[in-house]
Amino acid sequence: MEVHIELFTYFREDRFSSQKMTFPEGIKVRDIVITLAIDPDEIGVILINGKQSNQDTPLSSDDTLSLFPLVSGG
User: Fold this and answer.
1) Most C-beta atoms within 10 A of its C-beta, which of 8, 12, 16, 71?
2) CA-based radius of gyration for the chain
3) pLDDT digits over 6-49, tens only?
């Protein structure tokens, strides 16, 4: 199945900003995060088709997964 992945801020470094990728049916967000070599603890916001989600959510074909890192500062 194809999933459209959008990465934001420093997640784009040495990766991509937006790309379609093929994964097995029922893959979870956490599995994609690990495949992309992103530390799961660095994920701040997860959106699937524009709706907030979590790392245990399975994806469906043609979903859009958006990953934002934690924000820090003051």
Assistant:
1) 8
2) 12
3) 999 999 999 999 999 999 999 999 999 999 999 999 999 999 99
